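Why run this: before we spend reagent on co-expression, it is cheaper to look at a predicted model of the complex and decide which construct boundaries make sense. The entries below are exactly what would go into the expression plan.
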Amino acid sequence: MFQIQPFDPVAPLIGGALIGLSASLILLTHGRVTGISGIFGGLLHAQPTDTTFRGWFLAGLLVAGLIVRLGWPELISLGNSTGLGPTALAGVLVGFGTSMGNGCTSGHGVCGLSRQSRRSLFATLTFMATGAAMVFLVRRVIGVGQ
Amino acid sequence: MSARLVLLLAGAMFGAGLAISGMTLPERVLGFLDITGAWNPSLALVMLGAIAVHVVLYRVVRKRRAPVFDDRFHIPTRRDLDARLLIGAAIFGAGWGIAGFCPGPALTSAAAGSFPAILFVAAMTAGILLERAMTANSSTLWEQLTWKSNRSTIRPPTR
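The model came back. Tokens follow.
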């Protein structure tokens, strides 16, 4: 029904627009930044705050994952070319870094840049740069993945 | 429409957007970050598409005095650049560049039954808790490392 081509600009634009609409809907109804790391991390407290907001939004995100798996399984990667050890290390770094830097691709990259936040601009430039540097290190220097 | 239904819908829209755009395919994400190899620029359009919509609707929505289901907006107001922000973003990017997952696509893929994504989310949870534990025990170290220590010791609301 919905075929994704590797260099197709339409699907990324449609998907991106949906993400922007979601963030706008959250702003309109709840007045909050749609930053996934913050919404998720906020639940990891002994006494979490805003549990209704966090829980129901994340439930929607998870429901989408289930529906995509059932209807469009080609959009989900079930395999792993990274290896489980590096995947776990990557998860720790992403959790640690987003907690320390107060945001991820959505909170800084989408919401922050949209409201012209200086902090989010510098955060986004930084994680884009180190992300590209890490891919270079892994693929070109260490020589894994290609 | 109830607040909970809106949240469920917004979450599902966000997850669908990630999947349609290709963000739940880590190989595609790594291809986007691989600027010195066979660079696949298409994922830049995800962020551009999201910003194009949100930059307009943000201005429209902020003309309201308050959101629909709350009495005020909860938008970060800090402008200072501190070491925590930049070091944190750098560490996040490094992890993103190893596995090709950032938090949203990882959670969506985990719900879709991807074992690597489930492992990633478990490790991400550990990383968040580790950062908090280290920060709680080393505030004086952070005061020395941050450029504007008087402001950066007050943690802003999580986003």
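Residues 3-61 of chain B form one domain. The mean pLDDT of chain B is 90. Bring this page to Monday's planning discussion.
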